[in-house]
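Our preliminary data section would be incomplete without showing what the modeling component actually yields. Below, a chain of 520 amino acids is followed by its predicted structure, encoded as tokens that our downstream tools consume directly.
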Amino acid sequence: MRLEWPLNQTTYLVNGEIRSWSGPAQKILSPIHLRTGDSVEPCLLGSVPSLSAEAAGDALQAAVAAYDSGRGPWPTMAVAERISCVEHFTRLVTEKRHEVIRLIMWEIAKTLADATKEFDRTMDYIRDTLEALKELDRAASRFEIKEGIIAQIRRSPLGVVLCMGPYNYPLNETFATLIPALVMGNTCLLKPPRFGVLLYGPMLEAFQKAFPPGVVNVIYGDGQTIVGPIMQTGQIDVLAFIGSSRVADVLKKAHPHPHRLRAILGMGAKNAAIVLPDANLNLAVKECLTGSLSYNGQRCTALKILFVHKSIADRFVEKFTSELSQMICGMPWQDKVQITPLPNEEHCDYMEELVADATAKGARIASAGLVRNRSFFQPAVLYPALLTMRICQEEQFGPVVPVVPFDSLDLPINWIRESNFGQQVSLFGTDANVMSVLIDPMVNQVCRVNINSQCQRGPDLFPFTGRKGSAEGTLSVSDALYQFSIRTLVATKENAENKALLKQIVHDHKSNFLSTDYIF
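Predicted structure:
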């Protein structure tokens, strides 16, 4: 699995040109440490351009020019032609599959199995998105006549989109906004995340070959240096960002016309599990273990706080820690490995802070003690956790699991009600009456209630969103198409002259909007 490092990438994509950059570069260190003699150091994977505000501004102007106030070739292109471009891109990227998977694994320490799953799932997501667009277009390929008005109603693009994805799913969640934005006719600037950036190097040529100039522009660099000035121009029409609410707020405030800015945001979560006294203990432990520690807990959908009824809490924790001790820790390429290093050592420092705060306030480390080695942090189970502890208030985004015992359901219900987050919850129990009492208030606090199963995003056909501070907008294969477009119609009074005019336009294929073509 070794790469030919260092991979010093010196190019970026602007206006259909793969441009060279000779200025400052950002070093990319792997969370994986290598031994050289007596020294153990993080592997230097390579570097990427650290663009200036001026260079990023050129990319923005390329996207603005390609959109051309909705008159550019891409936004006016027939839907079938845009679909063809994305299909071409998918074929080209698939040729880079092995390379991209290894880069994901080395840069963010995602297991080989999960990195492979991320790539393949992303390609499936693209194909499903195109099928959903075909269905959407077929439904719109007709005229409606109401109250003497003839109209055709379709969806049209919004303008220039800035796409910024997260490090934990640097390919999948970035493409979950980029692809629907593109196929709906928008032009895009893509800024890869801080970690998981090298994988975009092999894709630059695919973007260049598959899309017209300026439709996709890929920029690298420090967010404050390049993203802030881009937002301040007011020329970004849509912000597609998955990350912290703090950064989302900064970006939105930088825009001079926030009322004009459409935002599709994924901003974190603190998903809870509520384990009732009659729950199937084996099932609850299995789902909570996977839900809280898959990819080291670095998922917005991870279970980040476990409320367990006092009558079974001791048994739950004993079984949970016993199962945890069987999880394999190691390098991403090891067979069946489950726990890997975190992206950087600073995040491990943060995990230590959370554990220290909890133990100082009365919690014990119920798992195998505190084990930290550079970027590796062995999962820690904190029990009994109190709501006054930082671990119960902050989104840890890592392998520290608080278990909060409760007597009354008021405790977890009130915590969820008062939380700034509102993405998902998992309920474990077998009593239909009690579960019903929980379900009805929970659906008004979170956007997905999971019954006897962990929180998760998929299937991608299901809506993925959140309430309160967790999200703006909804992402799914079909919902994302709506998020990056707006309903638009062409209408006229029903009379002989107007009917003849519409008939001629449609018959002679003079308009890509006014059309009754059926996409197969």
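DSSP finds 15 helices and 25 strands in the chain. The longest strand covers residues 25-36. Preliminary results of this kind motivate Aim 1 of the renewal.
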